[in-house]
Each structure stands twice: as C-alpha cells, then as structure tokens.
Specification:
By secondary structure, the protein is an alpha/beta fold. The chain contains 13 helices and 18 strands.
Length: 422
C-alpha cells in the first residue's frame, strides 16, 4: 500500500511539474498575443484634438457631419474614404469620434522628422505606395484582430483635381480577407477647401457623410472583382459636382493652378500658362480664362478645372516618351528624406521608367516596367515619386517642376491602356 501511495505521489508530482511546464510555455504565448495587438492612438492627442482642433475646423470651414450610418459602429471595421484633400485624416477622425481609429498612411510621411513622433503616437500603419508591401497587409490583419477600426484611402494617392482616382489593385482582396464590416466616409467640399494645387485654403463649406457599404459576411461572399466594383462605385467622387453653387472665398482663385494645368486649349502649347489674380493666361496665344469663387470657368472651352485637366491628359501621345534631367530626393541613413540626395536623367515610355544617376555619391542605373509602377504620387509643381527595391525616390524635374504632373498623367494613361480602359 505504501508503494502504491509513493507511486501515486510521484504521479501527482510529475503531473504538477508537467502542468507547471505547460503554464510556463503558455505565458510567453499570451505575451506574444499582447505584443501582436495594434494599440489605439494616443488618448492625449485625441483629447487635444477634440477640445481645440475640431471646434476650430468646424467653425472656420463650416463643417457639418452626418453620422447616422455609423451609429453603433464597433471594431473591428474597415472605413474607406475618397482621398480629396490633405486634411482627410483629420476630417475622417472628426466623423468617427469618439472612436480612436487606426490609419494606413504613406510611408513617405514617416521620412519627415517633424511628423514621425506624432505618427508613432497615433500608431499608424505605414504603406509603401504602389509597391508590394506584405508587412502592411500583415499589420492591417493584426489591427483587425485587435478589434481596431481601420481607415484606408483606397486610391492610394491624394487627387490633385477634386475627382476620384482609380482604386488600387489588392484593395478588394484585402477587404475580403478581413471579412469585417465596411463603411464609407466622404468629405464633400474638402477638395475645394484645401486644393492640392493651391497656395492657400478657401472658406466655403464641407459636408461629411457616412455610409455602411456592407457587412463582413457580404464582403466574404463576393468575388474580388465584384467587391472591387462595389468599392470603386462607393468612393467615386467629383467635388465640383457635389458642391455646385457653393462659394469658396479666397484672395486668388488661380494661384498655383499651373501646377496641374499645363496645356493651352486654344493653341495647345505646353507650359505657357500663367495663373494668378483669378486668371489663366497663355503667353503664347493670349488666351485669358477666369476662374470664379464657385469653381466655374469662363473664357475657356471647359466649365471646370477637372474637365480641363482630363482633356489635356487624354491628349498625351503615348508613343512619344518623356525625358528630363532631375534633382533626386532619397531617404538618408537617419531615415529622413534628403531632397538633394543626387541628380539623374530619367525617361518614361509605354514599357518602363529608366533612371541613370548619382545618389549619395553612388552611381545608380535601373529600369522599372510600367506594369509594376502602376502610378506616381505627386507633389504638385515639384516632384513625383516611386519605389525601387524598397527604396523611395523623389524626382524633381528641372528646370521646371510643373512638368511632374505630365509624368503622372502619362503613367496613368499607360496603366489605363493596359487595363483596357482607353
């Protein structure tokens, strides 16, 4: 009997030790689960925003918000928004308060030493724009599993002329994979209040509206192609049409507009337009068009800026390549963007982008097929940018940075042609 009790004790001790080992193994797993979670943005920053920034913006820019479609919203959820202004992150945050949301933002913002500390406190997910980025997808999935509300601008770029751009490839596949409720937040008038091309802001009106597009179950039930079409239709936007009849007050309606309008509709000369004092003048043929505070044109064969821009984009000859000398910007060893990192000769045709230059003292030459580039983000009147081998390059055409928009338009046309949309 004593032997049996001894054996029983040994068995009990063995079981206890085994259980203890299992608990020890389980603890790290729990810690890993915590580490894998995406935390919400800084509560302190949200409180500051709610107390000071939101009231200021609402009053100054006459912002109204319709939140009916997002009442009762809970995480995890995916919010998609047309990207029409540099203030879209603030505007969508206003609409979604009191939720503290997780933004997917372009990695180039993190290259600014001034913005980097703020973005870290906001716990944003960074994305290499128009470049394969598995880490971003992994982080978005982590955010969904953490119960976060994720805000994504599916065009991948801020539009420079107040109309929507194409939805990036992979958006629908990601939405299906997440399988969470999808909402839309649209800021009507933001693209007219804060035009990407303008030198100053305007005072008019912004109306933010919300929509529940579909449930997670419905998203999973659709094919990627069907879901892509639903998303593209939901975020398709034309600010000039949405806010027709609203006055947007400013000192000069046209200053900076030559950053996106480069072709005269009368003589079809390029980069002869001068924009200031509310006028768009051609130094070659004498065209004199006027843009009023309602965003309506007179003296030109177009009613709106968007119509003018799309006309000149459609006039691009894809059989004639673009070439330029350029100043090159690149991220330095400290993770900051150096806008004078080097120089290069750059060429773009239907098939590829060609780069031959010197960056940080190193001679570099490469080419990237246009089907891999897809699109260029742009800083109007200055530069367009792209990634090569995971490295971000800014291209500043010289001597005239206004040429950047033609490179953007050219690649957009090539991509549309490859997708059978021309």
């Amino acid at each position: 009997m004593r032997k049996m009790n001894d054996n029983s004790k040994k068995t009990d001790i063995s079981s206890t030790q085994s259980a203890s080992k299992n608990e020890k193994k389980a603890k790290p797993k729990g810690k890993n689960n915590i580490k894998n979670k995406i935390k919400p943005p800084s509560l302190f920053l949200y409180i500051i925003g709610a107390l000071f920034v939101v009231p200021y913006l609402r009053l100054k820019y006459r912002i109204s918000i319709d939140k009916r479609a997002i009442r009762g919203m809970r995480g995890p959820a995916l919010v998609l928004a047309p990207h029409v202004s540099n203030f879209d992150h603030l505007l969508t945050a206003m609409a979604l308060m009191p939720h503290r949301v997780t933004y997917v933002v372009s990695e180039h913002f993190v290259t600014s030493p001034k913005l980097r500390p703020i973005l870290r406190r906001l716990n944003v997910i960074t994305k290499k724009m128009f470049y394969p980025d598995a880490q971003t997808v992994f982080n978005i999935i982590r955010a969904a599993k953490s119960g976060r509300i994720i805000v994504l601008f599916p065009e991948g770029r801020l539009t420079w002329y107040a109309r929507s751009l194409r939805v990036t490839d992979g958006t629908a596949e990601l939405a299906r994979k997440l399988g969470i409720d999808i909402y839309i937040v649209t800021s009507d008038g933001a693209g007219l209040t804060f035009p990407k091309w303008a030198k100053s802001k305007r005072r008019g009106k912004i109306h933010i509206r919300t929509e529940k597009l579909m449930t997670g179950e419905e998203a999973r039930s659709l094919s990627a192609d069907e879901l892509h079409k639903r998303i593209a239709a939901a975020i398709r936007h034309d600010d000039e049409a949405a806010m027709a009849g609203v006055r947007y007050r400013c000192r000069d309606t046209t200053l900076g507009l030559d950053g996106i309008l480069y072709k005269c509709p009368a003589c079809e000369r390029e980069f002869t337009l001068e924009t200031s004092g509310g006028h768009i003048r051609c130094s070659s043929c004498g065209l004199d068009a006027i843009l009023d505070e309602y965003y309506r044109l007179s003296g030109a064969p177009f009613d709106t800026i968007s119509d003018w821009y799309e006309w000149q984009r459609d006039k691009i000859d894809l059989d004639t390549s673009l070439e330029c000398d350029a100043r090159v910007g690149c991220v330095n060893s400290e993770g900051n963007m150096d806008k004078n990192a080097g120089v290069a000769k750059v060429k773009l045709d239907r098939h590829a982008l060609y780069f031959d230059g010197c960056v940080f003292g190193e001679n570099i030459a490469f080419s990237i097929p246009t089907e891999k580039l897809t699109a260029f983000p742009v800083t109007v009147g200055e530069e367009f940018d792209f990634y090569y081998n995971g490295r971000l390059f800014y291209i500043y055409p010289t001597p005239d940075g206004r040429a950047a928009i033609k490179w953007v338009s050219f690649l957009d046309r090539v991509t549309d042609e490859s997708k059978g949309k021309l």
